Structures are given as structure tokens and as C-alpha cells.
Amino acid sequence: MSGLIHQDRSAYDLMLNVVVGPLDLEQFVILSTGRIEVSAGASVDAAIIGASHIFRFRFAGLVFHEVFACSGVKTESRKISYGPFAEAGGEAELTFAGKGRYRFNSRMLSSKDGAGELREMERLAAKKPVPRNLGLDFRFPGGKSAVAPRTIVILGTDEREEVIFAKTAHSYPNENTVVFTETDFLSFGRIREPSMKKEKALCEA
Fold first, then answer.
1. Which of 31, 113, 118, 195 has the fewest CB atoms within 10 Å distance of its CB?
2. Using CA atoms, how far apart are residues 97 and 106, in angstroms rounded to an integer?
3. Quick check: bond before 84 cis, omega within 30?
4. Portion of the chain with pLDDT greater than 90, in percent
């Protein structure tokens, strides 16, 4: 896909789309990618795109995508949309029938308040990647601010490899804000004493 890789957009335009099934990635400007292999049949692909990020989860025959971006998503697959998220942030929890549970939350901080967390994510992303952990760090050219917009992605598993997690940071220097997201996916076979405030059941893909 050709065209500008970055445009000044507002953090308040960010939306979450969860797409269950195939998704045509040709509609996005892909800037940086990575993958972790969790186990046989379980993997996660990460992509920094011109508008934000995409994760593609594969687990026991289930394939779904997390698209967090200011732009829309075109797909014939089942799509569940949330947002745009307000300054206080947003959250989503989904149950995939017979497969597992997905959780997402986002927070918006001022550049000053989020500086320490952003530096820590930068440090983690710079660490040498291993098969089940990786980091991506992309600085966008241009923009109205003297400071370049930036996206950082951290992807991995917990110590016992029972939970797949992802963390991202998206800086908006033109608005002096940073948006942080956290995602985790747990398989039903490894969940113990689940406690959920909100959930939405999905049919198997």
C-alpha cells in the first residue's frame, strides 16, 4: 500500500476493532513486524501500522485480530468495535466459545506523566528478542511537533507460558499525550477461578 505512512491524528480518534477470522492486511501501511511462537499451533504476529498497531492471534484453530487505530477496518469477517475511547481510557473483555478469553485496556496520559513508563517500554523493546518475547520500536517521520510520534510494542508470555500478553505505547506529541494499551489472552484450559466483570460470548470462528 502506498502513500503517507503517518498523518497527524488525534489520540481521541483511537478505536479498538476485534476481527474474528481472516483480515486483509493490504489495507494498512505496515511499518514494522514481529512474531512469537508460543507453542505448536499458538503464535502471535505484531505489526506497527501507519495509524497504530495490529496483533494476530492463532490458538487451537482460532484466529483473531486486534486492530487499535484511528482508521477504520474493512473486512467481511465478524468484527466487534469499541470506542473511540475517551481520555479516561477504555476496556474490553471477550470470551471465545470453547477457546479462551481476551482482555484489553487502554490509558491516556500526558507526555509528562507517561514519560517514565515510555522509557521503561523503550528499554524492554531494545532487549534481545527470544522465541517467546519481542519488542518493536518505530519513530514516525515528520509531524507538526519537534518530537517525532512513536509506537512501541512489547509481546511475550508469562513465566509459565500460560498467558500471552502485549503492551503498546503510542505517543502523540502534537497533543502532548501518550496512549498505553495492555492485552492478554488466556486459554480456557489454563484459567483457574476466573472472575470477569464484563464478557461477551463469541461463536467459534
1. 195
2. 24
3. yes
4. 56
pLDDT tens-digit readout, 121-173: 999 999 887 778 899 999 988 655 567 899 999 999 876 666 889 999 999 99
pLDDT tens digits along 63-94: 999 999 988 899 999 999 988 876 657 889 99
Fill in the amino acid letter for 11.
A
Number of H helices, E strands in the chain: 1, 13
Three-class secondary structure of residue 125 per DSSP: helix
Q: Please list, in sequence order, all residues whose beta carbon lies within 8 angstroms of the beta carbon of residue 97, skipping any fewer than 6 positions away.
A: 201, 202, 203, 204
Alpha helices in 49-136 (DSSP H): 115-125
Give yes or no for a contact between 98 and 109, defined as CB atoms under 8 angstroms apart.
no
The 3-state DSSP class for residue 118 equals helix
Report the pLDDT value the prediction gives residue 8, as an integer from 0 to 100. 56
Residue type for position 168: T
Alpha helices in the chain (DSSP H): 115-125
Q: Tell me how far apart the terminal alpha carbons of the chain are, to the nearest angstrom.
A: 28
178, β-bridge pairs: 109, 171
